[in-house]
């Protein structure tokens, strides 16, 4: 198996802040590595080190087999970077932004123009290509920024929170683009605060918090590692909620109930499900919903770090906590 | 790192050849100039202030300073041109700072290009803008009656000297652009630097009317040397060799100190 990105013991401090406190990362060639972490976890710092923009204080990293410090030039020649904030020149048109990169990469004029035009088309920016980028919407800027990082046909692509601030439609679109690139053999390292995003795109996930990798594995593996599954029961009649809650708690351990009439319990033993069904049946309780599902990555994160990944507005779960 | 690493089958040139670096500088200079096409206001910025200064200084101060606007223009135009050139170096720093804060510099630094190309590209592009302002002011001055007795060689010499000095000076402002956190601050710092520097020189008035302590400073102020040199070359009168030599020495001195400082600050960002 070959690795396009390998990092070992990366440390980086800014004055008092330790942004990276010994981070190991590895991305297999042609796969997506999702780096998942909350604000300030060190995601951007890690990306900047790997993209040769920051020198690590300690540790080392290879990208495409080249050392990011000693062979920075070689690394730069094979990576593309889309930073957390769209780094486009607002004064230039979309076409000129891409042309600039193409020319800097040494493409002859005609070829550079052709590549800029083709990328604009691929990213649905053909109509806006002649307009200054400062007139672009947030989503268009993101797309232009991503297109700019693809001008050099990078073998390794770094995407730092590529979908933050995008609407669901643009986000799906970007996911498709990433899938396409990976299909063509590109290795992608993608940072995100969205558990769903990592779940959707990543082959492997590294969860980082406060400059450390606190868990890693495949999305499925991670979910199993931390807690397996969640059992949910919804009684047909709302007045039986208490009764069902007590029953599930008795069989599966501490359960929670929501105002919407759902009883939820984390379970590790698959045998519990039939047991719960038997008890419900014996008691003559009719249920409208009975599911055993994998824990979401959000729940994974909560159990790994003891705090939530993102501060959310009140959700079903929050209400549960208020109720219990 | 126990697993075997297979190198991706691209063997990129890790070293950037000087010729490539030069081309990259030109490409980046193009980038800084082509903006004007989409933002004609920028050309206005480059034109309005110089025109305003020439008109105001000549017609408002002229009578009192030298007896007539016409006579004052002969003295002051080179000084106004010098002041404008120094102010314009702040734009170089502004642009750099915007690139820095917007992340554009990160994108450029992640490309396999010469490290200094983003800086050099800016300096080169701003030379073009400097030249534009210079021609505009000189043209306007001549319309208003400025005598270019130094002839074509004098004007070319003055332009060359001015641009050389401006390039050196822009490394000083680039350092500001590299160190401050937002573009507005560049202007504040730059203003505090350039304004006193030009007013405590012989750019607008002869230094011999100043109090002793100020005069002592004005005599060594690089802007005095430069203003005297540009004036001498353009008008073909007064001492030329001394001021030209001193201006070049100052420019070299500034460059020797500030180019390494800027490059260090640039590298320190990693
Ligand atoms: N240039 C810098 N100077 C000082 N501190 C920094 C710098 N860059 C990052 N930090 C600090 O390092 C820590 C990690 O920052 P980093 O930007 O890597 O986090 P992140 O995971 O990308 O967060 P976010 O999700 O908010 O983008 C933070 O505490 C941050 O304040
Ligand atoms: Mg970040």
Key features?
heterodimer; A: 324 residues; alpha/beta; Rossmann fold; Alpha-Beta Plaits; 4-stranded antiparallel beta sheet; elongated; B: 270 residues; mainly alpha; 10 helices; 79% helix; 0% strand; globular; binds adenosine-5'-triphosphate; binds magnesium ion; transport (chain A)
Structure commentary:
- The complex is a heterodimer of chains A (about 325) and B (about 270).
- Chain A folds into 2 domains: about 5-220, P-loop containing nucleotide triphosphate hydrolases (Rossmann fold), CATH 3.40.50.300; about 230-295, UreE, C-terminal domain (Alpha-Beta Plaits).
- In chain A, helix 3 (about 95-105) crosses helix 4, helix 8 (about 220-225) packs across helix 11 (about 295-305) and helix 9 (about 240-250) packs antiparallel against helix 10 (about 270-280).
- Chain A starts with a strand and ends with a helix.
- Chain A has about 325 residues and is α/β, with parallel strands linked by helices.
- A 6-stranded mixed sheet of chain A has the order 6-7-8-3-9-10, with helices on both faces. In chain A, strands 2-1-4-5 form a 4-stranded antiparallel sheet, with helices on one face. In chain A, strands 12-13-11-14 form a 4-stranded antiparallel sheet.
- Helices cover about 40% and strands about 25% of the residues of chain A.
- The model of chain A is unreliable at about 310-324 (pLDDT under 50).
- In chain A, strand 7, helix 6 and strand 8 form a beta-alpha-beta unit.
- Chain B has one domain (about 20-270).
- Chain B contains 10 helices and no strands.
- The longest helix of chain B has about 35 residues, at about 70-100.
- In chain B, helix 2 packs across helix 5 (about 115-145), helix 5 (about 115-145) crosses helix 6 (about 150-180) and helix 6 runs parallel beside helix 10.
- Chain B is mainly alpha-helical.
- Residues about 1-15 of chain B have low confidence and may be disordered.
- Helix content of chain B is about 80%, strand content about 0%.
- Classes of the chains: A alpha/beta (about 325), B mainly alpha (about 270).
- The interface of A and B includes residues 62, 80, 100 and 103 of A.
- Magnesium ion binds near residues 43, 160 and 161 of chain A.
- Magnesium ion (MG) binds near residues 43, 44 and 161 of chain A.
């Amino acid at each position: 198996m070959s690795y396009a990105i390998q990092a070992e013991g990366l440390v980086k401090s800014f004055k008092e802040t330790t942004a990276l406190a010994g981070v190991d990362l590895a991305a297999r060639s042609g796969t997506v590595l999702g780096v998942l972490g909350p604000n300030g976890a060190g995601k951007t710092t890690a990306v900047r080190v790997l993209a040769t923009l920051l020198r690590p204080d300690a540790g080392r990293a290879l990208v495409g087999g080249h050392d990011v410090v000693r062979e920075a030039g070689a690394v730069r020649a094979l990576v593309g970077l889309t930073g957390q904030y769209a780094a486009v020149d607002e004064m230039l048109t979309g076409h000129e932004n891409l042309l600039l990169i193409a020319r800097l990469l040494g493409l002859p004029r005609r070829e550079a123009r052709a590549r800029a035009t083709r990328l604009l088309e691929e990213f649905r920016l053909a109509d806006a290509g002649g307009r200054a980028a400062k007139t672009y919407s947030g989503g268009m800027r993101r797309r232009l920024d991503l297109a700019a990082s693809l001008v050099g046909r990078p073998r390794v692509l770094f995407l730092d929170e590529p979908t933050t601030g995008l609407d669901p439609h643009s986000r799906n679109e970007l996911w498709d683009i990433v899938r396409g690139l990976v299909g063509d053999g590109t290795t992608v390292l993608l940072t995100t605060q969205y558990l769903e995003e990592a779940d959707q795109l990543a082959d492997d996930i590294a969860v980082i918090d406060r400059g450390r990798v606190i868990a890693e594995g495949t999305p499925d593996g991670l979910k199993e590692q931390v807690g397996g599954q969640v059992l949910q029961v919804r009684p047909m009649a709302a007045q039986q909620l208490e009764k069902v809650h007590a029953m599930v708690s008795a069989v599966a351990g501490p359960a929670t109930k929501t105002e919407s009439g759902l009883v939820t319990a984390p379970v590790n033993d698959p045998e519990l499900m039939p047991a719960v069904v038997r008890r419900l049946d014996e008691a003559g309780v009719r249920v409208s919903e009975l599911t055993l599902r994998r824990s979401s990555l959000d729940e994974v994160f909560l159990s790994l770090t003891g705090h939530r990944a993102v501060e959310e507005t009140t959700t079903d779960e929050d209400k549960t906590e208020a109720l219990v | 790192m126990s697993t075997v690493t297979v190198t991706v089958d691209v063997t990129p040139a890790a070293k950037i050849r000087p010729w490539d670096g030069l081309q990259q500088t030109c490409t980046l200079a193009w980038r800084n100039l082509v903006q004007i096409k989409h933002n004609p206001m920028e050309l206005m910025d480059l034109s309005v202030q110089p025109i305003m200064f020439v008109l105001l200084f000549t017609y408002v101060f002229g009578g009192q300073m030298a007896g007539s606007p016409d006579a004052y223009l002969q003295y002051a135009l080179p000084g106004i041109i010098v002041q404008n050139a120094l102010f314009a170096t702040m734009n170089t720093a502004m642009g750099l700072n915007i690139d820095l804060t917007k992340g554009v510099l990160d994108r450029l630094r992640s490309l396999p290009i010469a490290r200094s190309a983003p800086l050099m590209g800016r300096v080169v592009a701003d030379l073009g803008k400097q030249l534009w302002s210079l021609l505009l002011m000189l043209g306007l001055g001549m319309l208003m009656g400025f005598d270019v007795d130094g002839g074509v060689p004098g004007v070319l010499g003055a332009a060359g000297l001015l641009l050389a000095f401006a390039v050196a000076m822009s490394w000083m402002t680039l350092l500001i652009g590299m160190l401050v956190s937002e573009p507005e601050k560049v202007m504040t710092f730059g203003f505090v630097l350039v304004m006193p520097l030009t007013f405590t020189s012989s750019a607008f008035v002869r230094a011999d009317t100043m109090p002793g302590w100020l005069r002592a400073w004005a005599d060594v102020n690089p802007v005095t040397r430069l203003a005297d040199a540009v004036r001498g070359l353009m008008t073909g009168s007064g001492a030329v060799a001394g001021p030209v030599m001193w201006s070049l020495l100052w420019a070299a001195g500034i460059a020797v100190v500030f180019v390494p400082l800027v490059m260090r600050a640039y590298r320190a960002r990693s």
